[in-house]
Amino acid sequence: MADVTRLSQEDQARIKAAVHAAESGTSGEIVPILARQSDSYADIALWWSIAIALFALGFIAVFPDFYLGLVDAVLGRWAIDWTPRAVLELALTIATLKFAGSWLLLLWRPLRLALVPKSIKMRRVRARAMQAFHLGTDRRTTGRTGILLYLSLAERRAEIIADAAIHGRVEDDVWGVAMADLLAEVRKGHLADGLIAAIGDIGAVLHQHLPRAADDVNELPDRLIEL
């Protein structure tokens, strides 16, 4: 997926128009959300740093002569007899340095994200999308006809979450076309085009299963929310 910057006002206006057009034939309310990242993954960085420090301790335990000889060579000392206390201090020093160095390296977001297991990314994007849905869409419409389109750029994942009235009429796999059209454009770096394509697909599904009522009113803003 290509890197993209914050959307221009023109792109935001295009997305707003796409939402308005998609909702013109349905009682559904489409809420598109763009998130730069769904989680900081600070805990993952912590666990990696701990694992590397423990690995260093294990290496010292299995190959003590390597580190002891290295320290003697660096300090220019003749080989000496290491006391248990000196060995322990050396081990703790190395483990601390490994932990601190790993933590500092993992402050670089691309590396941290690369080390996050895919399954964890999926769960956290889903959790953030659900949180956004409950805050901005769930039960916010009279007939519970809201639907959230959530795109998280850092994790390269998207979610579509529908309120009760839509979920009860439309199977989850129906949204596959919208997801495919969205990601196909975003991978090319066409972020706005991807969102517009997905919004159009969602609108077509909603028009089929939840056509616009005569007394329908627009209950949610027709705009992109950027987090």
Describe the structure.
This protein has a 4-stranded mixed β-sheet, with helices on both faces. The longest helix has 22 residues, at 84-105. Helix 1 packs parallel to helix 9, helix 2 crosses helix 3 (64-75) and helix 8 (176-187) packs antiparallel against helix 9 (191-209). The chain is 57% helix and 10% strand. The radius of gyration is 26 Å and the shape is elongated. It has 2 domains: 9-39 and 117-226, Diaminopimelate Epimerase, Chain A, domain 1, CATH 3.10.310.50; 42-114, no CATH class. The two termini are 19 Å apart. With 227 residues, it is an alpha/beta fold. The protein has 9 helices and 4 strands, in the order H-E-H-H-H-H-H-E-E-H-H-H-E.
CATH class of the largest domain: Alpha Beta
Structural class assignment: alpha/beta
Give the number of helices: 9
**CATH fold topology of the largest domain:** Diaminopimelate Epimerase, Chain A, domain 1
Describe the structure concisely.
The protein has 227 residues and is of the alpha/beta class. 57% of the residues lie in helices and 10% in strands. The protein has a 4-stranded mixed beta sheet with strand order 3-2-1-4, sandwiched between helices.
Task: Write out key terms for the chains shown.
10% strand; 227 residues; Diaminopimelate Epimerase, Chain A, domain 1; 4-stranded mixed sheet; elongated; alpha/beta
